[in-house]
């Protein structure tokens, strides 16, 4: 399976073909596949994970409302997107730790969380020169310094990212005009930036 190989290009190609069989006109000719909602739920997760928000909403509108609320495969992306818009990132992290209805779902759930974490980090970078490592755990939804280092390494050089850990702080090396430290009590407000932008788009 393309997802198991992490071959996104191949997955996109297969889905472009498979979606033809899920078209409402085609579905009038043959019964629905038993795996249809498994596949559609995975596709919705893919759209969220790769920030294809407009396409996500187009696809979700094609799925009956009762399936959105009751189908175990569709509920996963629907709940993630809802938590995302609400800014309930702790709930997203909690859902990541729960069992998913299909093993292939975990890859896109992890990618979705990574995408959110990255956007939060870039927002923080614009407002801070540095953060206490203890604060980054909560803000970036990271559990340990080792996980933080992996996160930094995986994004190093991406879109000008240049972060480093010195002592008990994470430093955003990129220079910003008129940048200054902001009290840590206001950090959580940064988490709402991306969700607010999403609301404007949608």
* Low-confidence blocks of residues: 176-187, 197-202
Q: Give a short account of the largest sheet.
A: 3 strands, antiparallel
Number of helices: 11
CATH class division of the largest domain:
Mainly Alpha
SS-derived structural category: mainly alpha
Strand adjacency order, main sheet: 1-3-2
At the fold tier of CATH, the topology name of the largest domain is: Arc Repressor Mutant, subunit A
| Shape annotation | elongated
Report the oligomer.
single chain
Please write the string of helix (H) and strand (E) elements: HHHHHHHHEHHEEH
How many distinct domains? Answer: 2
CATH architecture of the largest domain: Orthogonal Bundle
The whole-angstrom Rg is 19 Å
Q: What is the strand content?
A: 5-15%
Please state the average pLDDT score. 80
What is the strand and helix layout of this fold?
Layout: H1 8-18, H2 24-27, H3 36-49, H4 53-60, H5 65-70, H6 72-86, H7 89-97, H8 105-127, E1 130-132, H9 133-139, H10 145-155, E2 163-166, E3 169-172, H11 192-201
Antiparallel strand pairs: 1-3, 2-3
Helix pairs in contact: 3-6, 3-8, 6-7, 7-8
Outline the structure in words.
- α3 packs parallel to α6 and α3 packs parallel to α8 (105-127).
- This protein folds into two domains: 8-88, no CATH class; 113-201, Arc Repressor Mutant, subunit A (Orthogonal Bundle).
- Strands 1-3-2 form a three-stranded antiparallel β-sheet.
- With 202 residues, it is mainly α.
- Mean pLDDT is 80; it is low at 176-187 and 197-202.
- β2 and β3 form a beta hairpin.
- The chain is built from eleven helices and three strands, in the order ααααααααβααββα.
- It is elongated.
